[in-house]
Every structure is written in C-alpha cells, then in structure tokens.
Fold:
Amino acid sequence: MTSPPVLIIAEAGVNHNGQRDLAFSLIDAAHDAGADCVKFQSFNATRLASKTAPKAAYQLGKTDAAQSQLEMLKALELPKAWHADLQRHARQIGITFISTAFDLESLNFLNTLDLPFYKIPSGEITNALLLWHFAHTGKKVILSTGMATLSEVEQALAILAHGMTHHRMPASLSETWETYATDDALKLLTERVTILHCTSQYPTPMREVNLSSMQTLRDTFHLPVGYSDHTQGITIPIAAAALGATVIEKHFTLDRNLPGPDHLASLEPGELKQMVEAIRDIGDAIGTPYKRPQPSEWNTRRAARQILVTTCPVVAGATFTETNVGSMRASSGISATHYWDVLGKHATRNYDEHEPIGKD
Structure:
C-alpha cells in the first residue's frame, strides 16, 4: 500500500499586505501551482501584541524601523469581512481555504467558517489557553514547533489531549499530564494531530534547518510529522517530503520585492509550482516498502539477465564442468544463479556452442 499524498499548504500569510485584490490573487496563484490549501493568518493586532513588543530582526529589515510590531501587525490584519469571500472564491476554483488564528477571538471567528482543520503557529505553542481551545473545536490540528524544545512540544500535546477529551478546562497544568497518559488521549492525538518541524527564522540559514529533528519528532511521539519551511528556494521542502513529511507548508508571494516582513523568505508563483511538482514526483517515487520488480522492469529483466549456456559443443552424456558451462544473455533457459547446481550433471542431449542449457 502506498502512502497518501503529501498535503501541500501554500502559506499566503500576511503577504496580502492588507490589499483585498492581492489576497484573491494569492489564492489564484496557489491553485495554479497545484497546492492543496492556501493559508492566511487571522489575528486581532491589539490582542496579539502590546505597544512595547519589539519586532523580530528579520521584520526590521523589510519594514519601517520606526514602526512598532503592533503598528506593523495592524496594517497586515486580514479583515473578518474578507474571510467568507476568500473562502468562497477558493472553493469555486478548487483549492481549500484555511487560516491560522493567533488569538481566541480569531479562533472563535474561524470556527464559524467550518474550516477542515487548524494550523497552530509556532509562536503559540506555549499559549496554553489557545492550545486548549484549538483542541476543543474537535477539528484536526497541525502543530508547528519552531523555536520549541522537545519538552515544550510534549507539554503542548498534553494540553491538546486535555482539550480533546474534556468539556471543562484543566484546574492545573499537571491535570493535562494525567490526561496525556491515558490510552483514550493518545488515540485521539494519533487521529487528529500532525507535528511540523520548523525553524522560525526568515529566511532560515541552511545550517539551521536541522531537518533530522523532523524524524526525532516522529520517533518520539509516534505521530504524523511534516515540515514548515522558511528557507529560500525549494530544495529543503523537497528533501523533507523524501524523508517522510506528510505535510509541507511554504510561504509564497506574487513578488519577493514587495514590502512586508515575509516576502523575502517566500517563493514566487513559478517556484511554488516547481516545488509542488517535485513533491508530487517524490510521492510517486517513494512507493511501497516492498522490494520487487516494477511492471516496466520485466521486459528489461528478460533482456538483461544472464542464463546458463555451453561455452563449447557438448555431446549427450558428457559432464557439465567449469570448462563447458558459462553464462550469456539469451531468450530463455536456466538462470545463471544455478551455476553450481548444474556442474557435475550430465547432458541429456547434444548442445551446440552458446546454447542455453536445459532448453528443449
């Protein structure tokens, strides 16, 4: 049985730059590239960042240095009034619309849109209240783990487990661990949670990708894993797919030269299409764990495999020996694998030179 196709999420994020037409164009570009989903970000800037919150270093390089993080985020909000229209447009052209919530108000709003699943951003992996409510929606969740330690990932899973199994919030953090240790919780986590490895730097230096830790997440938690990529280019997400990622998320933009914090680490539409095609090829190429001839190999196998032949004329009754038995490519006969089995046996008829042994 082959593995299911990799889910490819084209991350539009905040690359709409607060422009409605650009948001619609991003959906079109994601669809044209062959992605499964196009994802935006839903947040209330005043609930997400205080006036004193600093910008990250990568944000300073692509935005007005005098502008605060709060002011930057305010300009990049996706208005609630746009969501339904964007979702409708995505549905009409055949791509799934999703969005990431960064605060509880936004999550409650997204819940009215009946999205197929939720993506939990890396920055919220320690936001216990929001994690619990993500889980409590009953939807599948994809948990991104940028900046996190392994213990922080497990704590997040414990909170998600509690939210999936209880109607009330926990009285303490330790209560989430008690839930996490139950068979029912582990079953629900397996059914509903995918963990994404991620490095939260834009763009991510190659030496900080640490792609092997995606496999560490899979081996530690026995959950499906994927990769959220912030490197430049398409090499690393393709490699992640080859290593077993079930989900690939990649930022994209219509133009890397546009102003805004995330454009520089984003793919342009042609590159996004190349990435999607390469990942689809990887999915086809991975195949199954069974080593066996492929359908197209049988003809080559018949033409390329050697069989046992006589190296000189052999008369009936003569003994097959190392001096008169060899191997060549031929139309039919005994596989050269049986070389030692034939030695010492007697010819049942006359053979010409280079005649397949055992051929009637």
